[in-house]
Amino acid sequence: MTIASDQRRKVAEFLLRIKAIQLRPADPFTWASGRRSPIYCDNRKILSHPPVRTFVRQLAGELIESRYGQPDGIAGVATGGIALGALVAQEMGLPFCYVRSSAKAHGTGRQVEGDLDTMRNVVVIEDLISTGKSSLTAVEALRAVDLEVKGLVAIFSYGFADAAARFEEAKCPFDVLTDYPTMLEQAKDEGYITEGQQTLLEGWSADPVAWSEQRQTP
Question: What's the Cα-to-Cα distance from 95 to each of 81, 85, 98, 110, 182, rounded to whole Å?
């Protein structure tokens, strides 16, 4: 199964409607890295909207089963992928574990939490793919505890080429429910942005570093 265009558009429609994705090309957000960005994405808002979370968990479950068969378990990436991953695991009737950003400094010192004896392979759930670095750190942690990672499914991706290259280098296939170009088309069609704003937003996607530097405050 590949996600059909109308399904991608539906996910994008939901994310825009509940303001999980916000677009401000004229008044950019500042990311933790210090870069300026016209988009802010917080897919944890999905959890507050039952119809949206139902659609997302069902679509993710169908995609996983079609692409990877029935894995032994689902692994969520902290923090945004934990609750979403648990929903997908529940939908598929599978065990669940989650991956911390780093190992605990106390107690068991574990980075992967859950009953790992119940699974040999997993599909990873992530809320968002940006550079791909945090997602692949989680993949490495799962492999370090002898779990096979069959693949990763994210709700949304910015579509950066360097992220795709990192996943290829790590030999980790990935899929997304919707992506940046699809979201822009949906945003334009629904009147969230004008054609001129769409052009600005496409410029950010093509070169986010240069876009940010042009908009840094003195």
Answer: 15, 10, 11, 18, 32
| CATH code, residues 5-209 | 3.40.50.2020
Instruction: Determine how many CB atoms are found less than 10 A away from the CB of residue 143.
Output: 13
**Residue found under tokens 């405050």:** 217
Q: What are phi and psi of 138, to 5 degrees?
A: -65, -40
Q: Please name the residues in contact with 33: beta carbons below 8 A apart, sequence gap of 6 or more.
A: none
* Helix residue ranges, H only, the chain: 5-17, 50-68, 80-92, 133-144, 161-169, 180-189, 195-206, 208-214
Q: What share of the chain is helix, strand, coil (3-state, %, to 5)?
A: 50, 20, 30
For the entire predicted model, the pTM comes to 0.94
**Residues contacting 145, CB < 8 A, separation 6+:** 112, 116
Give the residues across from 22 on adjacent strands. Answer: 40
Tens digits of residue pLDDT in 71-92: 999 999 999 999 999 999 999 9
Residue whose C-alpha is closest to residue 55's, from 8, 5, 21, 11: 11
* pLDDT at position 21: 98
Q: Nearest 5°: CA angle at 144, between 140 and 150?
A: 60
In degrees to the nearest 10, what's the CA dihedral of 73, 79, 80, 83? Answer: 50
